[in-house]
């Protein structure tokens, strides 16, 4: 199974592809960060995200897209921007008929490190170890995207089945 992990963000959107041929056999296929110009108008930033995520979908043909669930933060502007970026990823998944798994930050941390309260350093170290990488991908947004993909490989089966069932129900209407 191939999972495209997306750590949504308007200025920096982490993106990573992880393949699995078994629970302990994970392989990073690609990783990066999509950046948009903070000075550009919102609609053009969202358009840039749409264009770049589409390129990743077309190039890597994921079986599932795993997106971090947007949660209420102290900074409302940041939460809204993150939600807008996540919306682009979800829309593209639907347009391409790709099931989606949505995971909370604590769920991702727990899946990757064993603790839902792990810090970013611990998550990055475990991503490096689990994917047998020589170094930690930079910036942290890319590492977070890989962690999302790993989390989905290990915990997302139920989420993916639910998404597939919803997709089939919509086609019958």
UniProtKB/TrEMBL annotation:
<comment type="similarity">
    <text>Belongs to the RuvC family.</text>
</comment>
<dbReference type="GO" id="GO:0046872">
    <property type="term" value="F:metal ion binding"/>
</dbReference>
<dbReference type="GO" id="GO:0003677">
    <property type="term" value="F:DNA binding"/>
</dbReference>
<keyword id="KW-0234">DNA repair</keyword>
<keyword id="KW-0479">Metal-binding</keyword>
<keyword id="KW-0540">Nuclease</keyword>
<dbReference type="GO" id="GO:0006310">
    <property type="term" value="P:DNA recombination"/>
</dbReference>
<keyword id="KW-0233">DNA recombination</keyword>
<keyword id="KW-0378">Hydrolase</keyword>
<dbReference type="InterPro" id="IPR012337">
    <property type="entry name" value="RNaseH-like_sf"/>
</dbReference>
<keyword id="KW-0963">Cytoplasm</keyword>
<dbReference type="InterPro" id="IPR036397">
    <property type="entry name" value="RNaseH_sf"/>
</dbReference>
<keyword id="KW-0460">Magnesium</keyword>
<dbReference type="InterPro" id="IPR020563">
    <property type="entry name" value="X-over_junc_endoDNase_Mg_BS"/>
</dbReference>
<dbReference type="GO" id="GO:0006281">
    <property type="term" value="P:DNA repair"/>
</dbReference>
<dbReference type="InterPro" id="IPR002176">
    <property type="entry name" value="X-over_junc_endoDNase_RuvC"/>
</dbReference>
<keyword id="KW-0227">DNA damage</keyword>
<keyword id="KW-0255">Endonuclease</keyword>
<dbReference type="GO" id="GO:0008821">
    <property type="term" value="F:crossover junction DNA endonuclease activity"/>
</dbReference>
<dbReference type="Pfam" id="PF02075">
    <property type="entry name" value="RuvC"/>
</dbReference>
<protein>
    <submittedName>
        <fullName>Unannotated protein</fullName>
    </submittedName>
</protein>
<keyword id="KW-0238">DNA-binding</keyword>
């Amino acid at each position: 199974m191939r999972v495209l992990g997306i750590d949504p963000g308007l200025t920096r959107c982490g993106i990573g592809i992880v393949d699995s041929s078994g629970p302990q056999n994970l392989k990073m296929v690609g990783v990066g960060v999509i950046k948009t110009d903070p000075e550009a108008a919102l609609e053009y930033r969202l358009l840039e995200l749409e264009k770049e995520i589409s390129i990743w979908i077309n190039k890597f043909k994921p079986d599932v897209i795993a997106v971090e669930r947007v949660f209420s933060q102290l900074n409302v502007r940041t939460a809204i921007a993150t939600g807008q970026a996540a919306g682009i990823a979800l829309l593209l998944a639907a347009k391409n008929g790709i099931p989606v798994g949505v995971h909370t930050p604590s769920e991702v941390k727990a899946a990757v490190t064993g603790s839902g309260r792990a810090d970013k350093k611990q998550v990055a170290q475990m991503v490096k170890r689990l994917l047998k990488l020589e170094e930690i991908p930079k910036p942290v947004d890319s590492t977070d995207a890989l962690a999302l993909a790993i989390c989905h490989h290990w915990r997302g089966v139920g989420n993916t089945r639910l998404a597939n069932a919803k997709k089939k129900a919509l086609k019958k209407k």
